[in-house]
Design goal:
CATH architecture of the largest domain: Alpha-Beta Barrel
Distance between the termini: 45 Å
Bound molecules: S-adenosylmethionine
Shape: globular
Radius of gyration: 21 Å
Number of domains: 2
Helix content: 40-55%
Strand content: 5-15%
Oligomer: single chain
CATH class of the largest domain: Alpha Beta
Number of strands: 9
CATH superfamily of the largest domain: Aldolase class I
Structural class: alpha/beta
Length: 472
């Protein structure tokens, strides 16, 4: 029944295979010989399958866990250097007809304020985001074919790309909207989206059906097969994720990796990103009502193992997590973080009065983008506002093969430095600017090719003179 290249949800995310995998992991969690073999394989940096990964997740030997962390850090460094890509979510509408029991946008929540941005309001939100320095957005919307039809989403994306305020621009719009049809995915592709992101929430079908009691999202197979339709529609950068806390994390972890293996087997390209959200308090949602919450240590282990198991897949962490947790997992493999996020509709322009709350969940990291950028640099990371890959056609398998060849360092490193320079020139505080200028000088030396380094230096000077948007 289990078949990674099948296009049927229950065959590529096969319950029996997950149960067998977990039993195999339990049986081998103290098998140090096998664990060493798996770690040796992981050192080849070609990833691990869901069975091998599940053994590592089950292992509670402190020394071995430390080895996993070391390896995750090493792989992170080798593939991503110390670059961290920055983004912000933009909530378009919280109208929703689903019944997701963990999300305050569920239709039976009658007291949350329902809002949908007009194109004028979007303009204001985007200008506020540009004025902070953001270049990359993740659009968020509830599922409601009447209030948020695809035409509305497409219009919003066009509006966002059209706004050029001072030196600002949103250069990559990723989209996190409900599962849809091949035809609508094709429309999203045509309008120029970056990644299509859809969280599975849980891979456990029975739990999924309980957690999504009604509405279009209640169809497990339709939701689980969404990425296949997105790829059929021409979107080859897709972002996976589960909402940790809904089901047993070991089940979810195996499912997540099986999903990645499926995309590789069926379409020849794995997921572009994996997100690792945990349930948060929200309007009428109490996270303690869910039995499967994971502690920070387990969360860190999951992040480290994702880095080891899918080295070419970016990993995203949002402001659901605190500064301390973010700091820990950044080292273990996270490659993208959001900064200064608002999870309310229209939240970048105006603070909402208490009685008009439209937030999706509470954010833990409430710092400004400048504070986040400065903090990253103080830890030796390079905040990158780069959006070059998809604009240069480096998506899907083209991105993956460049990544595998190691050549990506000659694009990503200079692009990170040039976009950071733009940020420093246009938006940074004096303190941040000082740290950033020194960081850029030091990091120029880490561009492997001399020729690329020279061009990068020239471009940095042109940015000083006011020219923008250089990229490799
Ligand atoms: N409506 C779309 C969908 O159903 O996929 C868009 C996604 S929704 C705006 C973004 C994500 O937020 C959801 O996929 C879910 O994983 C997450 N989310 C929902 N409620 C949450 C909560 N209480 N805490 C943390 N994350 C939550």
């Amino acid at each position: 029944m289990y078949n990674p290249s099948s296009l049927k949800a229950e065959e590529f995310i096969n319950h029996e295979e997950i149960i067998d995998t977990l039993a195999y992991a339990d049986a081998n969690k103290d098998n140090l010989e096998l664990i060493d073999q798996i770690l040796e394989k992981a050192k080849e940096r070609k990833g691990l399958n869901h069975r091998e990964a599940s053994v590592l997740l089950a292992c509670d030997n402190k020394e071995k866990i430390e080895e996993m962390y070391q390896l995750a850090q090493q792989i992170k460094q080798d593939f991503y250097g110390n670059r961290i890509v920055m983004f912000a979510p933009l909530y378009l509408s919280n109208y929703c007809i689903n019944g997701c029991v963990y999300c305050p946008y569920h239709i039976s929540n009658k007291h949350i304020a329902r809002k949908k941005l007009t194109q004028e309001e979007i303009k204001r939100e985007v200008i506020a985001l540009q004025d902070m320095g953001h270049k990359r957005l993740a659009l968020e919307a509830g599922e409601d074919p009447k209030n948020n039809p695809i035409e509305y989403i497409l219009e919003c994306i066009k509006t966002i790309y059209s706004i050029k305020h001072k030196n600002g621009a949103i250069r990559r719009v990723n989209v996190n909207i409900a599962a849809t049809t091949v035809e609508e995915y094709r429309m999203l592709k045509e309008v120029g989206i970056g990644t299509y992101i859809l969280f599975q929430e849980t891979y456990h079908k029975e739990s999924y059906e309980k957690l999504h009691p009604y509405g279009p999202k209640s169809n497990y197979a339709y939701h689980t097969e969404a990425m296949d339709r997105a790829m059929e529609g021409g979107i080859d950068d897709v972002g996976l994720g589960v909402l940790f806390g809904l089901e047993m994390y070991r089940y979810e972890f195996a499912g997540l990796l099986m999903h990645a293996e499926h995309l590789e087997a069926a379409h020849g390209v794995g997921p572009h990103t994996i997100s690792v959200p945990r349930i948060k308090r929200a309007d009428d949602i109490d996270p303690t009502a869910f039995d499967n919450g994971i502690d920070d240590e387990t969360f860190a282990k999951i992040c480290a193992l994702i880095r080891i198991c899918v080295p070419y897949t970016g990993m995203i962490i949002s402001t659901r997590e605190s500064q301390a947790v973010r700091e820990k997992v950044l080292k273990l493999g996270v490659s993208q973080i959001s900064g200064a996020s608002r999870t309310s509709v229209g939240g970048y322009c105006e603070e909402e009065p208490e009685e008009e709350n439209s937030e999706q969940f509470d954010v833990s990291d409430k710092r400004t983008l400048d504070e986040v950028v400065k903090w990253l640099m103080e830890m030796g990371c390079i905040p990158s506002f780069c959006t070059a890959c998809y604009r240069e056609g480096r998506t899907g398998d083209r991105f993956m093969s460049l990544c595998k060849s190691g050549q990506i360092q000659n694009c990503c490193q200079p692009n990170a430095l040039m976009t950071l320079k733009e940020y420093l020139m246009d938006y940074a505080s004096e303190d941040t600017k000082k740290i950033g200028e020194a960081l850029i000088q030091a990091e120029l030396e880490n561009i492997p090719k001399e020729k690329v380094k020279e061009i990068c230096k020239e471009n940095l000077e042109k940015i000083e003179q006011g020219i923008r948007d250089f990229r490799f």
